[in-house]
Amino acid sequence: MSLSLESSVITTDTVQHDAVLDYYGRRLATCSSDKTIKIFEIEGETQRLTETLKGHEGAVWCVSWAHPKYGNILASAGYDGKVFIWREQQNQWQKIFDFALHKASVNMVSWSPHESGCLLACASSDGTVSVLEFKDNNFQHVAFPAHGLGVNSVSWAPATTPGSIVSSASPGQGSPIQRRFVTGGCDNVLKIWTWDQATQGYKQESEPLTGHTDWVRDVAWSPTVLQKSYIASASEDKTVRIWTSDSNSQGQWACKVLNFDAVVWRVSWSLSGNVLAVSGGDNKVSLWKENLRGEWGVREDHGRKNQAAVIW
Amino acid sequence: MVRLREISRTAAFAWSPGAGKPLIVTGTRAGAVDADFSGDTKLELWDLDLDNQEQGLELQPLASIAADSRFYDIAWGPPTDDYPQGVIAGALENGSLDLWDAEKLIDGDDDALIARTTKHTGAIKSLQFNPLRPQILATAGVKGELFIYDVNDPSNAFRLGTAAAHDLECVAWNRKVAHILATGSAGGFVTVWDLKTKKASLTLNNNRKPVSALAWDPNNSTKLMTSTYDDLAPVILLWNLRNSNAPERTLQGHEQGILSLSWCQQDDDLLLSCGKDNRTVIWCPHTGTRYGEFPEVTNWTFSVRFHPHNPNLSATASFDGKITVQTFQNTNPSAVQNNTQNNLDGEDFFTQAQTQPQGAAFTLAKAPKWLERPVGVTFGFGGKLITFKPVTTQPGQPRASKIEIAQFSVDSEIGTATEKFEESLKAGDIAAICESHKDQATTDEEKAEWQVMGTLLSENPRQQIVEYLDEKSEKLGAGKGHKKNRLSTFFSDNAEGEGDDFLASLSATKGAKTDNPFHLFGENDSTVEKDITKALMLGQFEKATMICLEEKRMADAFMIANCGGKELMDKVQAAYISQKEGMPNYLRLLSSVIVKNLWDVVYNADLADWKETMVTLCTFADPAEFPDLCEALGDRILENGSRQDASLCYLVGSKLEKVVGIWISEFEEAEKAGMAEGSDTTFSVHARTLQQFIEKVTVFRQVAKFQDTETALPSGWKLSALYDKYCEYADIVAAHGQLNVAQKYLELLPTTYPAADVARNRIRQATQKKTAQPAAAVSSGRTSRPTVPAYMPPAPAQTAVHNSLYGAPGVPTPPANPYAPPIASNPYAPQQAYQPTPPAQQGGYAPPIGGYAPQGNFGPPKTTTAPPPSNRPPPLKEAGNWNDVPMVARPPPPRKPTPNTAAVNSPYGVQAGMPTPPPPQSPYTRGWTDSTSPRAGSTTASQYAPPPMAGGAAPPMANVVGRTASPYNPPPAVAAGPPSNRYAPSPAAQASQPPQMGPPGAPNPYAPQQGYEPSMVQQGPPSSGPPSTMSGPPMGGPPMGGPPMGGPPRTGPSAGNSPAPGPPRSAAASPAAKPKHPPGDRSHIPASAQQLVDILSRDMQRVAAKAPASFAPQVKDTQKRINILFDHLNNEELVKPDTIQQLTQLATLLEGKNYPEAQQLQVSIQTDRTEECGNWMVGVKRLISMSKATP
Fold first, then answer.
1. Interface subset of A 123-162, CB within 8 angstroms of B
2. For residue B247, which of A50, B91, B237, B1147 is within the disulfide window of CB 3.0 to 4.6 Å?
3. What pTM, to 2 d.p., does this model score?
4. Cβ(A63)–Cβ(A31) under 8 Å?
């Protein structure tokens, strides 16, 4: 396990709130307090600002790339309560949808796994979650109250349940594509929601996941489809909780607590879902892995300047 | 702002502390008159219940208890050990300090009151818990009384300061220094107290205006704000204690006296104030900027407070009988209105309207700090880790962030393992790989597999296998003779002892005869012997043999037959073998060997002796049949549970799909074992095991020179389990940044494999240097190619070719915009491309010649639409074989349904010399052929049958995939079948057609074919959206299509013409379309052309047999072309009778080796009858020159 020296550094004169690479790892979208979204082209160790998207009337909190099969699409959400969908065509970026339903800051947006469709979940401080669906050239939405005190984060479950990896040769058979996500809010709990075909809405699955003693700032559902489902949650209470569930646990989630020195802002799973990156208010980044005994160990600290591979 | 809740009380209030669900405690406000003029004094608890959608705007109290006196102020202290929900303290008008246990209050207990202390001589105006020492409480009241309590022992309070003339109106603890607090007096002084010295340390002159409220800076211990209720100068002052002479800033905006301040703890840029002007204003205290105000209410707002933990919420209490809980944002005002409206239901509108706050809805424009995510980390494709964090800047400088992208490797093991493996591959040292794996193998099974693979590498793999098996089996002796003996016994035990070697005895017999002198007609000769002798003397070997056979003089019969030629010999052999009774078992083996039919051995030999069976196969099996024999043997072994042995058979037989099945189960077991060890992470174990699996497969592919023939199929791949693993592996490898490697494996996937495209494209995008340029594809090709060494199979190349043929449908991303979505959302949409298929014919025949059809039918896109096959490296290899430039321009050859690859390849691949049309995928490599050659019992027969027969036999066998039901069918089934039967479609072929053509879910995929005109379609520009998934030879072949021979073929030539298949295509069939015979069929050659066909095929064979190996491609190409001609002739199409005549003449010249004239004639035919000359003419031309060059 190693982490090379920072291969690329961008310094901005405004505060950034999100930075995500696209599906190919070729473009970096960042968003900032200055109400703009910036898109950088990454080439090796260099990067070039190619676009600045303006339109938000407040700080932009979150950007998220859609799966390329739906086009070159970026979603953004901000303090202005707006969710924008941007699309690039012929090298031109255009805002193709302006979603202004929410009454307060939209803190996070998240695209669903592409298998389940072109769906965007939005978490808002107004206590609701909305799910936009792009279908038939049209955006439709479902909104529902999720965390009355405000929703901070949302993360989709992988399209198939772990342990039921269906062969790609027979899509549509085996376990159906699920629409399921987790939200975290100012009420210190996580809630899991599943699409209910009957009511055409999202239904809360079992009881909220409780344990955090302060706001849940971020949630991340591991994309892994091996064995277990993993959800990581980052909280103001200076802990990260890792919730696991497998086919035997019947909807019950076990929980492990990782302690930190500072509030934890962000958790992110690696693409294979086996490593968890945690970033805290002390500006430190740590990477965590679970061993087979189910213990989580820090694997890397990216906090100090110019720190390269630190292996524990 | 959004008004969330209302409490209908005129009351002092306090928020519950902490992160739990927000509650509000209220105490009836002193100095106010209730709407109902009641004198009740209550302490009440309210739950905002924000998650409850049923809850209306107006709340009902959760708990309500009577209090002794009215409240000036109320505070809720943080939880302590004794009071898990904290303590509620009331500053009462009567001077007593009442303490309640919040938990008991919540629970509804009556005895919530903890203590009542009366230190004050008059009303307590203000109180506050120490934010840093939650058990410490300060109260301030009339006559300058200021007390400090420990809530655990409230009676033991101490007093600060002395009696003063003025009342203290407010008290506030410093947020940073626990022992500092400040009070504000009605006399206009702000006093800062130090608990350590228990003295006032500083006094601020608040412009001599009464101080109504105090608020310390949340972060800066020397700053505080004060306000005054004086209506003449309603200002808020910001003080810095370092300069107590004058306020640092003055906030002006209220029109009347200010009654309350609240400085946000989470964002020091936010301050709330409210007052007698009925307004609640939000400020930036540092700059004095007024952000805005909440809607004005109808009476004084006397208290405002941020929720101490969730500053999204704040509450304002006013004398109009309400406490309003609100947010700061309303980004969608229209929606809120409805909400409010709903809550008015059932109430009198006018009474309500009067008390509704006035003014526009307010939304806080500045984003509060608690929503600002300062740091973050995310993962990106290709092992990238992106982090961002704030950069420390000088105060006053704009805040900045730094974003870093680092390369990250989850598991260095995986990275190095992959690298190492790829390097060895590049170095080409497969043997070393096998060797090292063998050494590292943990299980015997694994070891054996690697050893076998190593063995396969050798020059004479079969010999090696024999030796390997030899080594393994002590039972097998070293000597060849001995081995034979052993072999002979393995069919049954009682065979032991009948050990005389058959061949040996043959020669012995022979020897005996030569040793003994004899008379032609001996005295003891019987009549029979005499007859034989006579026949021999007359040279009637056949007759002599027959007599011998009748007399069961086998040895004699053989001897005589030996002189009578091969045919006779065979006859005797057959006769000998056929009399099975009483024969030793070895003869059965021998019979198998002699007739080159080892299926008997494979299927019937006892499995205990499988190794011997294997040795036999290695020794005798025809190369073409060998893999299938091995497979069959492996199947049998597997059925009996010995995975390792089965795997060996598959390995030896180069049956990747079967081996993979076994390896995948091994993989799963290994993973489980790894998990059980428990020292590593789940993922690492998984990844490591997967790596080993992939290495094994890769090496094997290389060793066996395996060529995946199914990559062009749209579905039903035999190797789909492997493809899954490839995808997964590519994902993992890519996640470790090794995109080239990932790409290499993705290239091995079929074009239409789900997810393959996306994944491939992802890596291409990720690796390419420039986006949005067509050149990108080339560059990616360049980068990826070198990593794909020699064994880069035709798979990608193949698909690339087929892409270009069909218009690159597999490329989801137009090069102009690599990020754009695939254009063809429905891959099945472009039906036109398939229209050329004449439905009736399709029903009737499965056409091997289809190999040409795509070129003819779909060729044009190559030049017209010219979609760059940017998805993968250019089809260099194929181009070499297929540089048939003329084809593009020419009218297409016969309209055939798209070919079944299996059908095309299997019969011909082995026999390079046969003048049959090679399939489009150029199966010139052994490995490729081996893997697809049908495993019917009759393969031998069909492969050695004369060319036309083989062609004819092909269609029924087309769909044989997998183990056939009845593999031991006697060869004659094919060879001797009545010609008419061969054209009957095999039931399997028919059944399989619809799924091949019909896109899943499309109700009627054939509809567009209605009334189409074949020729027009053929020539029309196929620009209308090339098909994507259907583009491959669309059969996939039903995996278990009926046994080729098992089912009785339809009889009667009509079978082929009356299309039984149900699909609409039969209805759509153009009545004009003439039934077509399958390519390769030679039974309908008109008499006029028979001579021509005979001569040309003869000459072709002659040429093929003698041509130098280096010309093999040209020879094959020529054969292919000549066969096109034959197909035309067979269908009596294109070539007109007089042309046939001319061609016959040409053939005769050729036969007469009159090359100059033949060439002349050829030129003249080509000139005069251009319209009839298709691709075949080039073949004729080449044949002439080849024939000329062949002695």
1. 125-127, 145, 147-150
2. B237
3. 0.61
4. yes
